[in-house]
């Protein structure tokens, strides 16, 4: 019996199982597997997450954060059931239309979708909780940001597919990354972040938005999720549109008393955060494409690299690291 059928025995009777049809759903850059389960009446999503079964405590992040977001009226799929012993979670099927799929030539429609996305993002960023509880006990501290920078160095810079950097250049790059990480650690501005708030993690269901892939939520600058949405590796938005959406997000933050920074500081930290986030994404894409041989991720490298010159031109402290990256990855 296929593994997915075995998992379904936990949720459906023998009679129901005979009526079910199962199709694997394309996942993203994670170890989780997803299956769409069809009955004559409705559909569900079955998630097989190896981390669930091996998680050391009962407070599994996906389930903990799903409950938190639901309590705070942030739209996420309902959980039908879960079995840690089987590493499986059965959730509501909210469709397969992504925000990425809805981008069109109609600027008014795009503005509606992105305004809704920022409304939803700010609602999530408004959630407060105890600092010793998930997800408020996790943050984008310098160690986390440097871990992501080092992942990039390992898989995008040091792999033999590219000319290796000289030891001095590599040391310089790490020093610059450390300075950027420390600058971004502004704990007084921290809010809750989804952590992967891009166009492939926002479903559009009957003109409403539903967030997925939220299990890594943590505290950080409010710009982190805004960067993920507006400097997205999967969708390149018009610069004026990005500027309008930045201003809209900032106004919401101020209206909800979520930040005391002025707009110039918002834009400054947005650029630094965008640089870090895009570099982190590049590490993921190189790892997926050239280590795991998932070649579909290769197409996202060039548009992600294309963001870097804009940040470098506006923020001089990004120039040294940015130029090393561009000179290394854009060589023939």
Automatic annotation (TrEMBL):
The keyword Transferase applies. Signal peptide: none annotated. The keyword tRNA-binding does not apply. One of its GO terms (molecular function) is transferase activity. Residues 22-247 form the Aminoglycoside phosphotransferase domain. It holds the Pfam family APH. Keywords: Transferase. This is Aminoglycoside phosphotransferase. It comes from Prosthecochloris marina.
